[in-house]
Amino acid sequence: MYPLVMPTYYIKMLSLFLIMGILALSVDLLWGYTGLLSFGQAAFFGLGGYTYAITIINLLCKVVPESLSHYTVTCRPGTTYLPVMLGVLVPAAVALVLGYFMFYGRVRGIYFSIITLCVPLILEYVTTNMVEVQVGNIPIGGYNGITDIPIPALGLPGAAIFPLDTALRFYLLVVAAALGTYLFSRWLVQTSFGRVLVSIRENEGRTESFGYDVRRFKLWVFTIAGAIAGISGLLFSTLGSYISPWSFNFVLSAESVIWVMLGGRGTLVGAFVGALVVQLLENILSGAFLYYWLLILGLGFVAMVLVLPEGLVGLVREWQFKVAGRAGEEQIAAEKA
Amino acid sequence: MSLGLFVITILNALSSASILILCALGLAVIFGMMGIINVAHGEFIMLGAYATFVFTHLLSLNIWLSMILGALAVGVVGIAIERAVIARLYGRPLDTLLVTWGLSLALVQVVRLIFGPQAQFLSLPLVSSITLAGVTFPVYRLVLVVLAILVVVLLLWLFKYTDFGIDARAVIEDPSTAASMGIDTSRMYMLTFGIGAALAGLAGAVLSPLLNVDPTMGQKLIVRAFLVVVVGGAEILSGTVASGTFLGAVDSYVSYLTTPYFGSVALLAMAILLIRFRSGGIFARNKE
Asked: Are strands A134-135 and A138-139 parallel, antiparallel or unpaired?
């Protein structure tokens, strides 16, 4: 496998790309399959990251204040199952509550998108302002966030502990998470639950008239997507040992939508493709065209929408269609459903 | 509460509201007419500010003239963008959203490349303050309140009493019938987008002495403008004015009580509540 021979820097970069791919996956599940365009998955991303950080530091570390806003954090080794679980459950719980608030109030379409846009903003403002507020033994740290987050470790508590202390081992964890969430989503969309989601996307009114309580389905997919975004967030906080209000930033939410759009919505795999390709491009372009790359990116998006509305994976599917003829047509129709 | 404190609270709320309304009107016109959210709206505001800067500092024009020219310049840019890009995406609101996002990115970078990332400084055209009931308040901010009212009245007149306005409302109400009546809907969209852009440019122009004029200034304003428009709902003028006033008042009052950060949080929370409980806008009929 490639990463075995790459220097640490590249492994970390690849891990980051995959982590963002998981975030994009949550967007695709909501948007590509259920037709719910959420601009706020960053909210659950950040919540996952912060929950993980707060839990693990409370569990394993001692925090000693040095001077104002300066702390030394010393951590003993230990397994990290609880922080990971909370890092997934807390965002999921918040998604459940927020989803209930929205879907059972018949908020839909653009109003849903706007509310999801506001939530991470509120979280960003609130965390930026909470400099000295402490959760357990660690302060939230305001704009600077929480640093020195220990790395995850597997094993048996108290007995054998396997810290994932090399970039490669962490990368493998990320790959496992990416594969896991992807396979789970793939499975989910081809169950009857998943089919109802697609039906909601296509025509919500008609789905309701068949007797399905669309609110419940939307609520569940929103919760699951929140959990997935939370996984992405907690992995992110361990990658850099650092979480800050930036993780709630609107740009992150917007980019996650762009990745799905570019990769091809409703394909699941497109989420990862889009995330990987765009981040890679951003890296290459910012290196090569230091001052112009954002301009190229912006214009690139414009061109993308005008030329490739179905995204990259959509392009591949069209090619499949043209080459394979009728047999391909059936396969694509089966895949799309 | 003393009279002075009361007066200044009201004035602050009005000032906050007028700024929000000025920023949101352009977006509301475009959203109401074409049903699209122009994510580059913040950048149109920014362009208005920079245009004013260019006209004042580089061409040494009177600042008021610069502001008007700035607004018009952005209007022209808006028309150009509409013809080049938006017109190809009629009936695809989501794609329009994404395209305007790409444009917003590009515009920020273009301005940054030309002018640099630092903030430009424009001096206030009116530095005096007036004293009411023992408290002082900057005249310029009062001017903005008056201006907001003027712009709303102007738009009201435009939409109610001009042929263009009547045609525009017909297109908003029912585009296909309007088209079959002989109204050129494509031209209507182009002009409306131009007007919306010019309104944004005007907001940027008049706000330029008050705010930090840097390439990213639009990004801080766009979210609030969005919220005002969405909470305002389908009624372009009355909705925007009502939601702008309400949200502006909430923000300014909570900011006064706590910090500006929590003022913003209050605005966001209030917007969420209003969207949830008044889906369709402040003046929507309660359907359930």
From this structure: antiparallel
